[in-house]
Amino acid sequence: MKIPFVSFLPMEKELNNDLRGAFDRVFTRSWYIEGEEDKAFEKAFAEYCGTKYCIGVGNGLDALMLSLRALGVGVGDEVIVPSNTYIATALAVTYVGATPVFVEPDIRTFNINPALIEEKITGKTKAIMPVHLYGQACDMDPIMAIAKKHNLFVVEDCAQAHGATYKGEKIGTFGDAAGFSFYPGKNLGALGDAGAVVTNNKDIADKVRALGNYGSDYKYHHVYKGCNSRLDELQAAFLSAKLPHLDRMNEERRRIAAKYTAGIKNPKITVPFVLDDCVPVWHIYGIRCAEREKLEKHFTERGIGFNKHYPIPMHLQECYKELNIPRGALPIAEEISSTELSIPMYYGMTDEEVQYVIEELNKF
Ligand SMILES: *Cc1c(COP(=O)(O)O)cnc(C)c1O
Question: Where are the transmembrane segments (predicted)?
Answer without folding.
Answer: none
